[in-house]
Amino acid sequence: MKKSSVSISASMLFFAVSMATLSATVVADVIRHPLPNNSKFPIASAVEVPAGNTIVFQSGTIPGPANPDAEPGTPAFFGDTKTQTISVFERIKVNLKRQGMDMGDIVKLTVFLVGDPANGGKMDFGGFMEAYTMYFGTEEQPNLPARSALQVAALVRPLMFVEIEAITVRKKK
Question: Using an 8 Å Cβ cutoff, are 145 and 44 in contact?
Answer without folding.
Answer: yes
